[in-house]
């Protein structure tokens, strides 16, 4: 390309990504950033005819949250990308076509969550080198693309067909399992409930299998993993096998493992700027005193790394009590976290139920008299609550960092803003549905229907989900 043929662009520009079905998106042009970035949620990898692909959703216009486009693109790589605020994130890199100023060329774009950013896309220098001249003073030199282009898109809706869904659970009669089965069947789907521990695998690169009772489990459109903490390792191995079979799993095996390892989850969340109670971790008994001082001294909270539903959580009201409990846990060769006790929370927390990129419901949980733990399984009580914009954003970001499509994010309200206590990959449905009166189960099935059909329906793979429309450009 000669110098004359280069496109002249300003510090912000309207562009199109036609292969993704995005006719208009406003991008910030940033030559200080090497890699381009696109807002994405619900990212999911799959293989099509031996080629690695990734599907994801996009809200292309910040002022039009009603517009939600689902895209698919070839997966080029996964790379660590450092953002302008210094945070490093492992991102999916896709290949697609960029159209701007009447010209088009292939580019690589990283996928990341930019829901709270003013621009849903950042155009980096690697996408512009040899193709464009940047004028950092001017704006929209290539014209303005109207958001009405999205109104003109005619969706190619998949023909409704029942889905075959597998629920991995060792408790088929509990509330969550029964509600999922009832709602699936009400919608005309088939849902099999199978004990995770009874599944076994034929591990082979040619044809991976999950077997149950002598038969191969296959032809499923989606898998809902409700993996108990006691079988995390085996359960996630089963989920990983279904992923190798290119079956959509509501929560991925990696995401489940990240959320179950409290230490690793805390490290990931802290690295991305999520507020949490001050937390410490050490192995040697000689470090106990310093560890206690790190979290501000007693009272403090001690947590087993792999406990759930309030089990393995102890409040030590004095330093001596803390030392005794730490020594006792170490004597059992148990890994524990030492955590600041947030007094102003007064034994209450907030459970935010996240599906995709939305908090669909929230409730306040208060511990029973004399118990600082607010878990409903421990006799806590729940009530409706209206969460703040900051609490909502924190819950969504925490679930995204761990890679969970469905999550229960537990927050504390503090003087310094929301603090994440824990992120649960198999949140129960009974408490949140009973308290809020919302159909959370239906929202989960809505998400599965949308995502599974995009990934599993071969009639949609490789097809455009929107008809092409001509792009009208008005001068800026």
From TrEMBL:
Keyword set includes Iron: no
Key words of the record: ATP-binding, Ligase, Magnesium, Manganese, Metal-binding, Nucleotide-binding, Protein biosynthesis, Ribonucleoprotein, Ribosomal protein
UniProt cross-references to PROSITE patterns, sorted A to Z: ATP_GRASP
Binding site for Mn(2+) 2: 422, 424
Transmembrane spans: none
Gene Ontology CC entries for this record: cytoplasm; ribosome
Listed name of the protein: Probable alpha-L-glutamate ligase
Organism: Emcibacter nanhaiensis
């Amino acid at each position: 390309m000669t110098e004359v043929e280069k496109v002249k662009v300003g510090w912000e520009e309207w562009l199109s990504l036609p292969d993704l079905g995005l006719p208009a998106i406003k991008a910030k042009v940033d030559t200080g950033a090497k890699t381009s970035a696109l807002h994405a949620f619900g990212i999911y990898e799959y293989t099509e005819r031996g080629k690695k692909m990734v599907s994801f959703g996009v809200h292309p216009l910040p002022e039009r949250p009603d517009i939600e486009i689902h895209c698919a693109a070839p997966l080029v790589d996964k790379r660590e990308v450092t953002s302008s605020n210094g945070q490093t994130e492992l991102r999916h890199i896709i290949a697609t076509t960029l159209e701007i100023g009447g010209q088009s060329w292939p580019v690589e774009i990283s996928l990341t969550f930019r829901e709270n950013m003013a621009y849903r896309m950042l155009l980096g220098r690697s996408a512009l080198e040899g193709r464009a001249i940047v004028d950092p003073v001017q704006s929209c030199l290539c014209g303005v693309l109207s958001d009405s282009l999205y109104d003109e898109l005619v969706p190619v809706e998949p023909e409704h067909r029942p889905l075959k869904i597998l629920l991995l659970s060792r408790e088929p009669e509990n509330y969550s399992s029964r509600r999922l089965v009832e709602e699936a069947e009400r919608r005309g789907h088939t849902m099999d409930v199978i004990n995770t521990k009874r599944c076994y695998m034929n591990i082979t690169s040619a044809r991976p299998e999950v077997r149950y009772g002598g038969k191969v489990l296959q032809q499923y459109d989606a898998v809902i993993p409700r993996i108990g903490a006691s079988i995390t390792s085996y359960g996630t191995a089963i989920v990983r096998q279904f992923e190798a079979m290119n079956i959509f799993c509501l929560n991925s095996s990696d995401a489940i493992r990240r959320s179950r390892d409290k230490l690793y989850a805390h490290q990931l969340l802290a690295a991305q700027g999520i507020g949490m109670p001050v937390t410490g971790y050490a192995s040697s008994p000689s470090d106990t005193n310093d560890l206690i001082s790190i979290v501000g001294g007693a009272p403090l909270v001690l947590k087993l790394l792999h406990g759930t539903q309030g089990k393995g959580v102890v409040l030590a009201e004095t330093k001596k009590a803390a030392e005794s409990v730490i020594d006792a846990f170490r004597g059992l060769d148990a890994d524990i976290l030492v955590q600041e006790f947030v007094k102003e929370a007064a034994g209450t927390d907030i459970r935010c139920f996240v599906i995709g990129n939305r908090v669909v419901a929230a409730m306040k949980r208060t511990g029973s008299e004399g118990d600082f733990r607010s878990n409903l399984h421990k006799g806590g009580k729940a009530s409706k609550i209206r969460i703040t914009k900051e609490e909502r954003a924190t819950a969504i970001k925490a679930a995204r960092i761990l890679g969970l499509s469905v999550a229960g994010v537990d927050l504390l309200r503090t003087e310094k803003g929301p603090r994440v206590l824990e992120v649960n990959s198999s949140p129960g449905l009974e408490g949140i549905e009973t308290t809020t009166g919302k159909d959370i189960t239906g929202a989960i099935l809505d998400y599965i229907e949308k995502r599974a059909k995009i990934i599993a329906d071969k009639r949609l793979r490789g097809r455009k989900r929107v008809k092409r429309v001509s792009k009208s450009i008005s001068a800026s």
